[in-house]
């Protein structure tokens, strides 16, 4: 069992696994996060926390600035400028999604099983 499998399991299956470990009490009242932590500790799996990306926050600031420019261009009826601004917003949004995908796959691949 690795971290990826552990995170994908549903709560009833996590409870079943936790009941197999001796010395753990109150499994039926535990939430999914608690069960994952206990099982990871019992199996020697290291879980890493995802951190907020500074790059993502910077991109979101740029998006907000472009949206303000977009509203201004729309009010001025500057449609050529508006098209460029919308394209910029779309590009930045794609970059944030790519960062999210990279963080998700990186977080799933980063946890290792220590034996």
Query: What is the helix fraction of residues, given as a range?
Result: over 70%
Summarize the helix and strand pattern as letters: HHHHH
Stretches with pLDDT under 50, minimum 5 residues: none
Distance, first to last CA: 11 Å
Structural class: mainly alpha
Number of domains: 2
Continuous helix count: 5
Number of strand segments: 0
Rounded radius of gyration (Å): 22 Å
| Share of residues in strands | under 5%
Quote the average pLDDT: 86
Describe the structure.
With 115 residues, the protein is an all-alpha fold. It is 70% helix and 0% strand. The chain has two domains: 3-43; 54-109. It contains five helices and no strands. The termini are close together.
Summarize the topology.
Blueprint: H1 3-8, H2 11-19, H3 32-43, H4 54-76, H5 79-109
Gist?
Helices cover 70% and strands 0% of the residues.
Tags for this model:
115 residues, mainly alpha, rod-shaped
